[in-house]
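Support request, please re-run this one:
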Amino acid sequence: MKTPVISIVTQFYNSESTIEKCLISVLNQTMKDIEWIVLDNGSEDKSAEIVARYAARDSRIRMVRNEFNNIKYPDKQHTFTSPLDLYDLCKGKYFASLDSDDYYDLTFAEKLYQLARKHEADIVACGSYFFRMEDPSQVSVRIPPLYTASNPSGIGEDLSSFYGVFRPIWGKLFQTSTYHKYRNFLVDRPSYLTNGVDTFFSLRFMQIAKRIVCLDQPLHWYMIRLQSTYHSDLPPQRWRAYDLLYCEGIALLEKWNQRTETNNIFLYLVHYHSILDCIDIVCRARNKTATERLSFLKNMLCSDVLGLYLHRLDQKDQSTLLEKSFNAINEIYQNSKGQLFLWFCWLYETFPCFSYIQERIVSFLDTSVLLKSLQVHEVLYVRQAAANILDNNISAAIGELFLLADQEEIPDIYTHSYILLSQRTCAFAEYIDGWVFFQKLEIEYFMEQYLFEKAQKALEELEELLTDDADLLSMRQRLDKFI
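Re-run finished. Output below.
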């Protein structure tokens, strides 16, 4: 086989239902000077057999293998840890990346290489069709504007029209010599970046590209699978990838001298919608514990980049973000009013400027006769007890209230509302000893605050119920000194 002009790289895992269509679209390209480098990433089905059968009669196929899947078994030794590792094997002048469930128009290589050769381009991109695995008849399309200018910075003048095409690594040709020249810059990435690797690679390649060309034709077909790794995987630091990709976008704009307010806002919105999409993934991540998913949500909503622009979003977008998080908590905790309430308490403390959050907390309080008299700042102090009350777990609520009394000195600003809630909750549960305890605590509070008339009235009422009570006799002796 003579030296190929185009190298196409594909990684597959258990893809027996899609790999043959992908394979045929590669081998039947109108441009024949190609090679197809295929990584079997530890497949356990017949997909490797399908590829091997074609490789036996077509020398353009080069199949390599990981014994174990590098995602499913991350702690094992792997020959290839990422699809990017395969680029080092490419012999063609240009290389392309193709997912195992996607396929090409048969003119993909020919049309893109003609443009690459004509303009001496480092990158050539085309449009893509998108179809859902569940219903292939539902097709959408993303097409970039035609772009052949000598200066790639012109893309920054209309970033929103091009960015979607350049986020993925597929649907493009990259110049192999440029890759090798800047390899360390292109592949050197943080260890937490497991989702969004292709966007990182594309944005970095654009930073060093001297010539970028776009063809306004869709020549690539992309399958959307909600169960794919990208749409379902939730590593603990996935949210950090969104911050990193935002920073890479900013670096690209600065390289091009195109960091305008319009482009800043656009990258904010890209980040914002990535977070919205990830909240949906949190909902689907049932292989994670509730605590893990809750921690992930909190970390993501506290991201540095989100903090840059959250206050600049309009009220509709802010509400959408909060409602999405509300729905996620609802899914995680299966409609627990208490957990939803705790989530809004956290949101209130994290984003105190949003009146919407305070209104939601008040709406929770209004559903309970025990809680409705509390102010928002008061209920934050007794939030765990309040959550149990909302879930009708009164005994647990009483336990939390006693825990507060035993473990810490209650700030004066919260003391009386805390005592009143404790009295009401014990009375509701007909827990007499608890009610008496908090009645006594209220008398002590009145005396500490020099509210002797209130202390006297409360003490008299309790003395009518309890005779010869040692605590009350002690209180009476102390109070008589001030009256």
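The two ends are 107 Å apart (CA to CA). The first strand starts at residue 6 and ends at 12.
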